[in-house]
Amino acid sequence: MREALKGQLSDDELRQFRAFDVIGDIAVVKLPEKLLSKKHLIGQALMQVHRHVRTVLNQTAPVRGEFRTRELEVIAGEPRTETVYHEGGCIFKVDLAKAYFSPRLATERLRVAKLVRLGEVVTNLFAGVGSYSIIIARHSKAARVYSIDKNPAAFEYMRENIRINKVGDRVVPILGDAREVVEKRFARKADRVLMPLPELAHDFFDVALEALKPSGGIVHLYDFGQEPDVFGPSFEFARSAAAQKGFKVDLLGARKIRSYATRCHHVVLDLALSSSRKI
Ligand SMILES: C[S@@+](CC[C@H](N)C(=O)[O-])C[C@H]1O[C@@H](n2cnc3c(N)ncnc32)[C@H](O)[C@@H]1O
User: Residue whose CA is closest, atom 19 of ligand 1?
Assistant: First the structure.
């Protein structure tokens, strides 16, 4: 990029150009205010350096709202926001303006998939376009993956991705609010529950417990952790909330997924819940 932009951007401007994501044939950059006047030059340079990139998008507002979408503008190439992305032997179609998607979670998706055992029932409360659910179906012998999302656009892509990846016999796409869906149709069915939306970790932990089989199971709790005690508060929250519902919690593992803000991390806690409830 430095070579391609030499003479067009000053050294100071070049230093401000940070990391970008490539999702399928689309590159997504987040340009600071100072570089906006050079956005087309930067977009062109990116396409020159990364030959398979057909479109460059600039993210103009952070991921936000209940559907966790972002505002994007085309700064170079074909005027579109839909792409096809390959991960873990699976194919995902996604419109980056209409549904959440991050390639930075690829390692975490595969890690969770490899933990799933033969015949497990998995419930994914915040499934997006189906990325975790489909990777799990492809890399494990799960019996069923109930895959819930509230965003109608994400749900349509999830259905399409289930079809493309031929996992329709095991992945069940469900459109709706995770709380309502679990309460009405999917309570007490899961061996494992995924909660890949840290913003709702605390509000929906009771839903995850409700989704588990009466004997208990595993919950992957995604949360934010602030240094110096990155995992402690999340675990203490889970322990106390679970105790109120008659569950005991053991911490199987905890890891930082990525840095989120200054001294704050997107984290995951793998929790084993066992129940003393009467069935
Ligand atoms: C951070 S995204 C995770 C998507 C997916 N797991 C992934 O890694 O690509 C969170 C998803 O939760 C969905 N969501 C938000 N609130 C929800 C709710 N109450 N019930 C079900 N889905 C919800 C959003 O529409 C969004 O697709």
Answer: 177
Residue 241 C-alpha to ligand 1 middle, in angstroms? 22
**pTM, rounded to two decimals:** 0.95
Confidence band of 81 (pLDDT split at 50, 70, 90) = very high
E-strand ranges in the chain read 21-23, 26-29, 55-64, 69-77, 82-87, 90-95, 121-124, 144-149, 171-175, 192-195, 216-226, 247-261, 264-275
Q: Which atom of ligand 1 is nearest to the CA of 196?
A: 6
Among protein residues, the one with the nearest Cα to ligand 1's atom 3 is: 128
108 lines ligand 1 (CB under 6 A): no
Please state, for a pLDDT cut of 70, what percent of the chain lies above it. 99
Q: Does residue 131 line the site of ligand 1, with CB under 6 A?
A: yes
Pick 5 or 161 by higher pLDDT. Answer: 161
The tokens for 53 are 């990139």
Full set of structural domains in the chain with CATH: 2-80 (3.30.300.110), 99-275 (3.40.50.150)
Predicted pLDDT of residue 261: 87
